[in-house]
Design a protein that fits this description.
single chain; mainly alpha; Helix Hairpins; elongated
Amino acid sequence: MLTVGLTHYLVLSAILFSLGLFGVVTRRNAILVLMGVELILNSANINFIAFSHYGNLNIDGQLAAVFVIILAAAEAAVALAIVLNIYKTFQTVNVDEINKLKE
């Protein structure tokens, strides 16, 4: 019988982080970039919970994960407002086409 250990969680977190980083670096659409950032934050949450459980850190890992979830929710709300404002101004959400933000 296979037991799930710390290594499994770390591999899953590394895969999520890699996918999120790939999404942030390669996408031009602002919504997809924000989804990549969310994947990166979720991979950090998996690490916090896994190290909390297997590293005998008591509840500190869960508290850090809750803080990251709150941070991600606030980031999503602010980022969505910015994306909507950019779309209203430029009629696009492609990051490469928005080069007149200084004006």
